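[stage:ingest] chain + small molecule (magnesium ion)
[stage:ingest] validated
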Amino acid sequence: MTFRDFNLDSRLMEGLDAMGFEKPTPIQEKSIPLILDKKNLIACAQTGTGKTAAFILPVLHNLLVNKSQGINTLVLAPTRELAMQIDQQIEGFSYFTNATSIAVYGGGDGQTWTQQKRALAKGADIIIATPGRLISFLGSGKVDFSSLKHLIMDEADRMLDMGFFDDIMKIINTLPEKRQNLLFSATMPPNIKKLAGKIMPDYEEVAISISKPAEGIRQGAYMTHDSQKEPLLLSILKDKIYKSVIVFASTKEKVKNLTRSLKQRGEEVRQFHSDLEQIEREKLMQQFKGKKVRILIGTDILSRGIDVEGIDLVVNYDVPPDPEDYVHRIGRTARAESTGTAFTFINPKDVNRFKGIERLIEKEVPKLKLPEELGKGPDYEQSSHHDKGRGGGRNKRNFRAGGKRKGQDRNQGRRNKRRN
Ligand code: ADP
Ligand code: MG
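[stage:predict] done
[stage:export] tokens:
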């Protein structure tokens, strides 16, 4: 199947070409026809599976085919970062069209407030908003939703976890009753269905089940103090059977430092993160695919959507924040029947998070002994007792939400405090 099969407007196809999208992902394949068919929908698929395009493409298509006046679509998203990301993707897809969008989110100064307020009053085809911020604008009476056709809730599970239920209902009460409702979510907790039952008379459901790591992956984990991570990585990299290696670190800064440090030790290594231009990233991927670069160090953007054959080793220099991300990351090795190795470095603070991963994959990952020369590492079971209530399994959404407090609406911050 290709994007051609959806018969999307040719201007969107141009946008897709420019963005390098060729084949729809499974959630796109299932959702896009239903949305084009004007159905209400709950769609559930894990992080990084292309949910944004799944809702944006059919909505943009509809907009282009039936050009409407006023605000056509409202997208609600839990955080400022996500609202901005969605807006950027919309800009990409609609590059060859005249569709307009604005993002409305908290944080920022008085000037941003005024700008957003003016933009809202003026209207745009698509508004992407965090609930708290939108509510504070609704009071001004200058937002006209009377011609709205689509309501989209992205990361609906996270919005509900963050305590946005009342705000969402308040917003929905200002929308025309006749509209298409689309709920997108990484997980499907019962409260999503409760919300769905309240806001739409009937709906279709599509779910792509979470993929378990392929059988061919040999997984192992090391308990380490932070100071032991770099020597441990170096000692693993000494093994030249690993010809193609990806190392994931939690932040851009870590990626940069680690790259510098490994280079100084004569390793053939390159870095991959959001500071690189798209074109640089693509060039780098080509070199890596062509085995001209042995080691790639990157943040999580590296785990999304890349398809490189024959990676021998994935190293999680830090435990990924979200259990699904673990599956994504180690899925970079052992693709299509081949075998591969995945090592994770766990510091004492991350033990509970790692236990969440083991619950998700329903498997205990063997804990490996540090090389002698590195001295003793912390103890896995001991460490987990120090750290009750953090991260892992069912708490992960709250945990993640808490970690992003900085960029959220004022109200959101307050809510998180109450919840965590
Ligand atoms: P989700 O919302 O499910 O977490 P995103 O919509 O953010 O996932 O998509 C993850 C990444 O995959 C983005 O970088 C996006 O550009 C890319 N992507 C999505 N769909 C496709 C596709 N069909 N082909 C190539 N890349 C895609
Ligand atoms: Mg998403």
